[in-house]
Amino acid sequence: MISAFNRAPLAARVLALGGLIPFWALALAPRFGINPPQLQAALIGYGAVILSFVGALHWGIAVARDNTPQPLPAWRSYGWSVVPALLAWVAVLLPFRDALMLLSLAFVAAMIVDQRTLAGQGLPVWFVPMRTLISVLVIVALYLAQLGA
Predict the structure, then answer these.
(1) Cα separations (Å) of 76 from 28, 81, 100, 103, 120?
(2) What is the arithmetic mean of pLDDT over 77-85?
(3) Contact at 8 Å (CB) between 108 and 139?
(4) Burial letters 92-113, b for 16+ CB under 10 A, else e
(5) Backbone region of residue 33 per phi and psi (left: phi > 0; alpha: psi in -120 to 50; beta: other values)
(6) Which of 43, 80, 93, 121 could bridge to 26 as Cys pair (CB 3.0-4.6 Å)?
(7) Residue 4 lies inside a defined structural domain of this protein
(8) CA 99 to CA 60: how far, in whole Å?
(9) Would residue 33 count as lying in a domain?
(10) What is the extent of the structural domain holding 69?
């Protein structure tokens, strides 16, 4: 997984890793005595935005594949692409611990869907391993936030 990640363009690696900073900073802040409600809202809000982005990747891939000899199954691809956004919306309405749990489970589900549906779809060899690595690091950060909540 790490070797495939290292094959990604530098911009993709830097931006993917940079996207982890808010997750980890907000998840670890309570361990340093910093835990105002705004930080909890920021973590849930950021998690919701990123979860929506993860779903939107499937929409973009489906659109790009529509004009190829082997388009992706439309309802599966487009349908799944909106599920993370709907789950994210519910998460922002929940109490903090419940929202963390929903986001964690949704990121796990998104990772599994990525692994099962995107492999072998003509994407760069680094894409699914990078998505998996970043997802695991997000899930761990959300778990640490649950421990500190």
Answers:
(1) 36, 8, 26, 21, 16
(2) 93
(3) yes
(4) eeeeeeebbbbbbebbebbbeb
(5) left
(6) 43
(7) no
(8) 27
(9) yes
(10) 10-148
**pLDDT computed for residue 72 by the predictor:** 63
For the chain, give the mean pLDDT. 92
Q: Do residues 43 and 145 lie in contact, with contact meaning Cβ atoms separated by under 8 Å?
A: yes
Residues constituting the chain? 149
pLDDT per residue as tens digits for the range 21-77: 999 999 999 989 888 889 999 999 999 999 999 999 999 888 887 776 666 677 788
List, in sequence order, every beta strand (DSSP E) within 1-149: none
Q: State the DSSP H helix or E strand holding residue 90, giving kind and residue range, or none if neither.
A: helix 74-93
**Would 27 be classed as within a structural domain?**
yes
Domain count, the chain: 1
Two structure tokens written together for 126: 């680094």
pLDDT of residue 20: 98
User: Are the CB atoms for 16 and 53 separated by under 8 Å?
Assistant: no
Q: 């549906």: which residue's tokens? A: 117
Within-domain flag for 3? no
Enumerate residues 6+ apart whose C-beta is below 8 A from 61.
72, 77, 118, 121, 123
